[in-house]
Specification:
Length: 253
């Protein structure tokens, strides 16, 4: 059966988590291609992924090695530019999908003709244990919604390939490269459709939980500016982002 979906996974020294990520792809009940971007790994990430796939009939694997460490944005762009299927889905090497994720998104995008779809997510610990903490999504995420907070989680996204190729990720590591692209895409292509089921299991490392708050905030503001939003509006949107962040942290949103 011909695949309509390419899954893009950048990999850099992810041998501890990549097996679970790849197995979650093989549990999907739609055929797909997995493009694994080996971003100068020095461990056995690629071999672990290949072994995990085994003889999975519905998944074809293509490994692309980078000539230099490109970082997540550059690695994903390399995968995007090498994609030939109608749709792209993104999965980081430390995240996982629940069964049925790709099928539900493919059905929704085919039915509506929309360009982009994301899902709710559940946080898991660094060890992969469930936390019961979930972040939902609206049925439609508009450009205005996205200005207030980035509610589109990268590893939950399925998008039309031709649209993604027109809005490649920034390779500036001082930005939230996916947020910049989502803003530009929603501004020109309409809302992102949301499936309010926690079909993504999002792994949070200790560093994400306990540190980096100031740097994350600065990245958010720079990302707004990189999406061609003027300084005054960027400050207003940043204030909304800060409030939403506090509410989420306290479990009030």
């Amino acid at each position: 059966m011909k695949a309509d979906i390419t899954v893009i996974m950048p990999v850099h020294n992810a041998e501890k988590t990549i097996k679970e990520a790849v197995l979650s792809i093989s549990s999907q009940n739609v055929p797909c291609e997995l493009i694994l971007i080996n971003d100068r790994s020095t461990d056995s990430s690629v071999e672990t992924a290949e072994k995990a796939l085994g003889g999975a009939e519905q998944i074809s694997l293509r490994v692309i090695d980078t000539e230099e460490n490109k970082g997540p944005g550059g690695a994903r762009n390399l995968g995007i530019l090498n994609t030939e299927t109608k749709y792209i889905a993104f999965l980081d090497s430390d995240d996982m999908w629940r069964e049925g994720k790709l099928e539900k998104q493919l059905s929704l995008l085919e039915k509506t003709g929309a360009a982009l779809c994301s899902t709710a997510r559940e946080f898991i610990t660094a060890e992969g244990n469930p936390t019961g903490m979930c972040v939902g999504v609206k049925e439609k995420i508009t450009y205005s919604d996205l200005l207030k907070t980035n509610s589109i989680s990268l590893s939950s996204v399925m998008i039309k390939t031709d649209v993604m190729k027109s809005f490649l990720f920034s390779e500036d590591r001082n930005l939230h490269e996916d947020y910049v692209s989502w803003l530009k895409i929603l501004k020109s292509n309409g809302p992102c459709l949301g499936i309010n089921e926690a079909l993504l299991l999002y792994r949070r490392s200790e560093g994400q939980v306990s540190g980096g708050t100031v740097n994350t905030a600065l990245k958010h503001y720079r990302s707004l500016r990189a999406a061609d939003i003027n300084p005054v509006k960027s400050l207003f949107c940043f204030a909304s982002y800060a409030v939403n962040g506090v509410l989420k942290h306290r479990g009030l949103k």
